[in-house]
């Protein structure tokens, strides 16, 4: 769990949530914000970002975070419907750690769709 305000100030996602950096927001509520990824890996690539910087990755989650994690997944489905990819199919990805491709230490989910997605992934 991270509570260091310096780290939050340097976090690109915290800056987006605070409105200090521009983003193409597709959904927001009191727990998460959903933005279009600025380096999309599929025709539809949306990030579901937790508003609070209390979890750097899924490894930091505890039983107390179950509600937030469930809400993030619910939001992913909601966004997939909103973006028109729910019926054709989409993937929800949580990269955890550097070797998995996590580049921002702030818990977030990727919603990808709009094309055939290969398996296994990259």
What tags apply to this protein structure?
122 residues, alpha+beta, HIT family, subunit A, five-stranded antiparallel β-sheet, 5 strands, globular
Layout of helices and strands, plus pairs?
Layout: H1 5-10, H2 12-18, E1 25-28, E2 32-36, E3 44-50, H3 66-82, E4 90-93, E5 108-113
Task: Please provide a written account of the structure.
The protein is α+β, with helices and mostly antiparallel strands. It has a single domain (5-113), classed as HIT-like (HIT family, subunit A, 2-Layer Sandwich), CATH 3.30.428.10. It contains three helices and five strands. It has a five-stranded antiparallel sheet with strand order 1-2-3-5-4, with helices on one face. β1 and β2 (32-36) form a beta hairpin.
